[in-house]
Write a structure and sequence with these properties.
Elements lengths: L4 E3 L5 H14 L1 H7 L3 E3 L4 E8 L2 E9 L1 E2 L5 E2 L1 E3 L7 H9 L1 E6 L1 E5 L5 E5 L5 E10 L2 E9 L12 E2 L1 E2 L4 H6 L1 H8 L7 E4 L5 E2 L1
Parallel strand pairs: 4-12, 7-12
Antiparallel strand pairs: 1-2, 1-9, 3-4, 5-6, 8-11, 9-10, 10-15, 11-12, 11-14, 12-13, 15-16
Helix pairs in contact: 1-2
Amino acid sequence: MCGRYQFSAAESDDLRQIVRSIQKRCGQDELNFRIIDGDVAPSCSAPVLISRGDKVVGDLQKWGMPGRNGHLIINARAETVTQRSLFRRSIAARRCVVPATAFYEWDSSHRPYLFTVPGSPLWLAGIYDCVEDVNCFVILTTAPNASVSKIHDRMPLTLLRDEIRPWLTDPEAALALLARAPAPLHCQAQDGQLTFE
Protein backbone atom coordinates (compact mmCIF):
# COMPACT_ATOMS: atom_id res chain seq x y z
CA MET A 1 0.00 0.00 0.00
CA CYS A 2 1.37 3.35 -1.06
CA GLY A 3 4.89 2.09 -1.68
CA ARG A 4 5.84 4.80 -4.16
CA TYR A 5 4.82 8.34 -5.00
CA GLN A 6 5.97 11.22 -7.20
CA PHE A 7 7.34 14.61 -6.24
CA SER A 8 8.12 17.18 -8.93
CA ALA A 9 8.72 20.75 -7.81
CA ALA A 10 8.22 21.97 -11.38
CA GLU A 11 4.55 20.96 -11.19
CA SER A 12 3.42 23.65 -8.74
CA ASP A 13 4.24 26.97 -7.09
CA ASP A 14 3.42 25.37 -3.73
CA LEU A 15 6.00 22.62 -4.28
CA ARG A 16 8.66 25.10 -5.47
CA GLN A 17 8.04 27.14 -2.31
CA ILE A 18 8.53 24.02 -0.17
CA VAL A 19 11.85 23.33 -1.90
CA ARG A 20 12.95 26.94 -1.27
CA SER A 21 12.00 26.58 2.40
CA ILE A 22 14.14 23.45 2.64
CA GLN A 23 17.01 25.21 0.88
CA LYS A 24 16.89 27.96 3.49
CA ARG A 25 16.91 25.50 6.38
CA CYS A 26 19.28 22.82 5.02
CA GLY A 27 21.45 24.66 2.51
CA GLN A 28 21.64 24.24 -1.26
CA ASP A 29 24.35 21.55 -1.23
CA GLU A 30 22.43 19.36 1.20
CA LEU A 31 19.29 19.71 -0.90
CA ASN A 32 21.02 18.81 -4.16
CA PHE A 33 22.27 15.53 -2.71
CA ARG A 34 19.18 14.46 -0.84
CA ILE A 35 16.01 15.55 -2.64
CA ILE A 36 14.45 13.37 -5.31
CA ASP A 37 12.57 14.96 -8.17
CA GLY A 38 10.45 12.16 -9.64
CA ASP A 39 9.54 8.83 -8.09
CA VAL A 40 10.08 8.57 -4.32
CA ALA A 41 10.60 5.11 -2.87
CA PRO A 42 10.87 3.90 0.74
CA SER A 43 14.14 4.82 2.52
CA CYS A 44 14.60 7.90 0.29
CA SER A 45 14.81 11.38 1.79
CA ALA A 46 11.90 13.51 0.68
CA PRO A 47 10.27 16.88 1.39
CA VAL A 48 7.67 17.10 4.14
CA LEU A 49 5.87 19.93 5.89
CA ILE A 50 6.08 20.16 9.68
CA SER A 51 5.15 22.77 12.27
CA ARG A 52 7.69 24.84 14.17
CA GLY A 53 5.62 26.66 16.74
CA ASP A 54 2.85 28.29 14.72
CA LYS A 55 4.83 28.21 11.43
CA VAL A 56 4.58 25.57 8.72
CA VAL A 57 8.04 24.83 7.30
CA GLY A 58 9.61 22.43 4.83
CA ASP A 59 11.94 19.69 6.01
CA LEU A 60 13.77 16.70 4.51
CA GLN A 61 13.03 13.38 6.16
CA LYS A 62 13.62 9.72 5.40
CA TRP A 63 10.58 7.72 4.31
CA GLY A 64 10.18 4.79 6.68
CA MET A 65 10.72 3.99 10.34
CA PRO A 66 12.62 0.92 11.49
CA GLY A 67 10.35 -1.70 12.96
CA ARG A 68 10.91 -5.10 14.49
CA ASN A 69 13.61 -7.29 12.96
CA GLY A 70 14.87 -4.40 10.81
CA HIS A 71 11.63 -4.26 8.79
CA LEU A 72 11.01 -0.76 7.36
CA ILE A 73 7.55 0.59 8.21
CA ILE A 74 6.38 3.03 5.53
CA ASN A 75 2.64 3.27 6.29
CA ALA A 76 0.42 3.38 9.36
CA ARG A 77 -3.32 2.78 9.46
CA ALA A 78 -5.28 5.94 10.29
CA GLU A 79 -7.88 3.84 12.13
CA THR A 80 -5.37 2.45 14.66
CA VAL A 81 -2.50 4.98 14.73
CA THR A 82 -3.61 6.42 18.08
CA GLN A 83 -3.60 2.95 19.67
CA ARG A 84 -0.21 1.62 18.52
CA SER A 85 2.63 2.33 20.93
CA LEU A 86 5.09 2.89 18.06
CA PHE A 87 2.99 5.78 16.70
CA ARG A 88 1.17 7.21 19.74
CA ARG A 89 3.74 9.93 20.48
CA SER A 90 4.02 10.92 16.81
CA ILE A 91 0.29 11.26 16.16
CA ALA A 92 0.01 13.40 19.30
CA ALA A 93 2.83 15.84 18.52
CA ARG A 94 4.79 14.96 15.38
CA ARG A 95 2.42 15.11 12.46
CA CYS A 96 3.68 15.96 8.98
CA VAL A 97 2.29 16.47 5.49
CA VAL A 98 3.96 14.73 2.58
CA PRO A 99 3.62 16.83 -0.59
CA ALA A 100 3.32 14.81 -3.78
CA THR A 101 2.30 15.21 -7.39
CA ALA A 102 0.89 11.66 -7.57
CA PHE A 103 0.88 8.29 -5.86
CA TYR A 104 0.82 4.76 -7.22
CA GLU A 105 -1.32 1.77 -6.35
CA TRP A 106 -1.18 -1.68 -7.90
CA ASP A 107 -4.17 -3.88 -8.65
CA SER A 108 -4.37 -7.63 -7.97
CA SER A 109 -2.66 -8.31 -11.34
CA HIS A 110 0.26 -6.05 -10.31
CA ARG A 111 -0.63 -3.34 -12.85
CA PRO A 112 0.31 0.15 -11.60
CA TYR A 113 -2.16 3.03 -11.54
CA LEU A 114 -1.29 6.67 -10.96
CA PHE A 115 -3.58 8.84 -8.81
CA THR A 116 -3.54 12.63 -9.09
CA VAL A 117 -5.51 15.81 -8.54
CA PRO A 118 -5.14 17.53 -11.93
CA GLY A 119 -3.54 20.95 -11.58
CA SER A 120 -2.84 20.58 -7.87
CA PRO A 121 -0.41 18.80 -5.55
CA LEU A 122 -1.54 15.99 -3.30
CA TRP A 123 -1.11 16.49 0.44
CA LEU A 124 -0.63 13.15 2.21
CA ALA A 125 -1.11 12.98 5.98
CA GLY A 126 1.87 11.56 7.82
CA ILE A 127 3.63 11.29 11.15
CA TYR A 128 7.31 11.30 12.00
CA ASP A 129 9.79 10.49 14.73
CA CYS A 130 13.51 10.94 15.32
CA VAL A 131 15.33 7.60 15.06
CA GLU A 132 19.10 7.63 15.68
CA ASP A 133 19.23 11.38 14.99
CA VAL A 134 17.31 11.05 11.69
CA ASN A 135 13.75 12.27 11.25
CA CYS A 136 11.75 9.47 9.61
CA PHE A 137 8.14 9.68 8.39
CA VAL A 138 5.37 7.26 7.54
CA ILE A 139 2.31 7.94 5.40
CA LEU A 140 -1.10 7.34 6.96
CA THR A 141 -3.48 5.11 5.04
CA THR A 142 -7.23 4.76 5.18
CA ALA A 143 -10.14 2.95 3.54
CA PRO A 144 -10.22 3.75 -0.18
CA ASN A 145 -12.59 6.28 -1.68
CA ALA A 146 -14.51 5.49 -4.88
CA SER A 147 -11.53 6.58 -7.01
CA VAL A 148 -9.21 3.96 -5.50
CA SER A 149 -11.52 1.14 -4.35
CA LYS A 150 -11.62 -0.49 -7.82
CA ILE A 151 -7.82 -0.86 -7.66
CA HIS A 152 -6.79 -1.32 -4.03
CA ASP A 153 -8.29 -1.79 -0.55
CA ARG A 154 -6.23 1.02 1.05
CA MET A 155 -5.07 4.50 0.06
CA PRO A 156 -3.10 7.40 1.56
CA LEU A 157 -5.06 9.76 3.77
CA THR A 158 -5.13 12.84 1.57
CA LEU A 159 -5.75 16.34 2.90
CA LEU A 160 -7.10 19.45 1.25
CA ARG A 161 -4.72 22.41 1.10
CA ASP A 162 -6.67 24.31 3.78
CA GLU A 163 -6.42 21.28 6.10
CA ILE A 164 -2.60 21.34 6.20
CA ARG A 165 -2.25 23.82 9.08
CA PRO A 166 -5.00 22.23 11.23
CA TRP A 167 -3.45 18.78 10.67
CA LEU A 168 -0.04 20.04 11.75
CA THR A 169 -0.97 22.34 14.62
CA ASP A 170 -4.34 21.33 16.09
CA PRO A 171 -4.51 17.87 17.76
CA GLU A 172 -8.31 17.84 17.90
CA ALA A 173 -8.63 18.79 14.23
CA ALA A 174 -6.06 16.11 13.37
CA LEU A 175 -8.10 13.43 15.14
CA ALA A 176 -11.20 14.49 13.19
CA LEU A 177 -9.26 14.38 9.90
CA LEU A 178 -8.16 10.80 10.63
CA ALA A 179 -11.78 9.70 10.20
CA ARG A 180 -12.61 11.75 7.11
CA ALA A 181 -12.98 10.15 3.66
CA PRO A 182 -10.45 11.51 1.13
CA ALA A 183 -11.62 13.64 -1.81
CA PRO A 184 -12.01 12.07 -5.29
CA LEU A 185 -8.89 11.58 -7.41
CA HIS A 186 -8.08 11.08 -11.06
CA CYS A 187 -6.80 7.58 -11.89
CA GLN A 188 -4.83 6.45 -14.91
CA ALA A 189 -3.38 3.06 -15.72
CA GLN A 190 0.32 3.34 -16.45
CA ASP A 191 -0.13 1.65 -19.82
CA GLY A 192 -2.09 4.79 -20.74
CA GLN A 193 -5.12 2.86 -21.97
CA LEU A 194 -7.52 3.26 -19.07
CA THR A 195 -8.65 6.47 -17.44
CA PHE A 196 -11.59 6.88 -15.08
CA GLU A 197 -12.72 9.05 -12.19
